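Not sure how to ask, but would you mind making up any protein sequence you like and the tokens describing how it folds?
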Amino acid sequence: MLTKNTAGVAVVKKIALTVNGKAYAIEIDIRESLLDVLRDRLQFTGVKQGCSVGECGACTVLIDGTPVNSCIYLASWADGKTITTIEGLAKDGQLTPVQEAFVEEGAIQCGFCTPGVVLSTTAMVQSGRSFTHAEVRRELSGHLCRCTGYQKIVDAAERALREAEAK
């Protein structure tokens, strides 16, 4: 369903999406970012607003299993998609192995970048493939962290990957 403005241009659209396993049908402004819809409308505040231009990775979510910067992804593009935010990982208070690796490696300093980095690492683990050290660093290169110096983040990602391979 589209609603048009006085110039006949569509501005409101109804979309259906699944976020963390729950289906939503909402009306959006076609100019809204997925970040704004997730944070402001659906209250998934674990999705952080950092730069609003796709540079810092704080807003990373998984869309159909792929990491995406939600600040530059239009909400209208999410119609029919499955989205995972950081709130969708832990089940019944039980952290995922990726989340546990980040805690155990001390890769969670201030925590602002952590949701996005954890989701990108989750996507690597779920891919089922092996990653070299250089590939892990490349996969996480879209995330800015001002606290950890990245080494603990890379250590946590590599630990999660090793543990997943061992299973």
About this structure: The longest strand covers residues 10-19.
